[in-house]
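User: Please predict the structure of the protein below. I'd like the answer in structure-token form so I can feed it into my own downstream comparison script.

Assistant: Understood. Taking the following sequence of 147 residues as input:
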Amino acid sequence: MSRLRVVSGKRIEDLLAAAPGALEADTAMRRLLVEQLTPRLYSLVGVVVAGCLRCERFVEDLRGPLDPSFAARAASDWRALALTDSEKAALTYTEKGTVDEASVRKRDVDELRAAGFCDKDVLLIATAIAYHNYAIRMAAAFDVLPR
């Protein structure tokens, strides 16, 4: 049960359903990000954000197509994993955008471009980072599970 009386369930969908239009907007955002980033990259961003926020308890809910042990390792130390150069660049940006977002500079975006991402991809990655920060923080604050 959520910390809010108006929310009867234990998932973020239940929380969002209590605010008119919020669940629909959230679902549309998630669908867009998963489709345009790939399910793997979207999930990697999510589990790394969870790790940065010390919310490892949410990794199972965020792992998507990732193997459970791989996802857990990504949350605790993604640098120790065998990842593509583009995944490493995206996760470096994810970590910086979660832990110290005010320090993100043009050179950080340039590193994503050098890894093969176009500006549209950079915007999608930044949106996924922001989305996961929002969803994980909401889930933690109201004691529900993210999706």
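That's the full token string. Residues 36 and 124 are 8 Å apart (CA to CA).
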